[in-house]
Specification:
With 166 residues, the chain is α+β, with helices and mostly antiparallel strands. It folds into 2 domains: 92 residues, Zincin-like (2-Layer Sandwich); 44 residues, no CATH class. It has 5 helices and 6 strands. Helix 1 packs across helix 2 and helix 2 packs across helix 3.
Amino acid sequence: MIYGDALDRCLDCKVEASDRAKTVAGSAFMRERRIVLNAALFKPGREKDRNATFLHECAHIIANLHKRRDCGHGIGWRGVMETLGEPADRCHSIRYLSPKAHAIVTWQCRGCGQEYHFVRRPRRRPENCWCAKCGPRQGQLALHWEAAPPPRPAKPGRKRSRRARS
């Protein structure tokens, strides 16, 4: 087999689930021989997405070990994906991992209505930004939707004491 040694070393990889990931399906870390998958992929009924993501990340590890450099989504990675019998898709289109599904802020173009979804609060104001399609003259953005901020968790180990009043 053409990837023999790299494939053997890939089989020693540690696979983890991440609760922190919102829109990222998976990540591969070659030096640590570690693959991290989004925890949402482990829910029942999502086996096809999980398997495709796992093979995608395995292809990164195998290609990088075989070429002894970071291949990204280049020819080396595409060759491994072809060998694995998977389409060489660079980005996923998993609905439940989309920015729209996890958006806390959505801006909308006043010209064409295009929505821009943000998983984190943008640093800029919408009035200082414009639509990529309409441009700065016609496509000024406006706040379309904003989620209520999540409640701040209490700091562990600190209790407020009540002072005795006399």
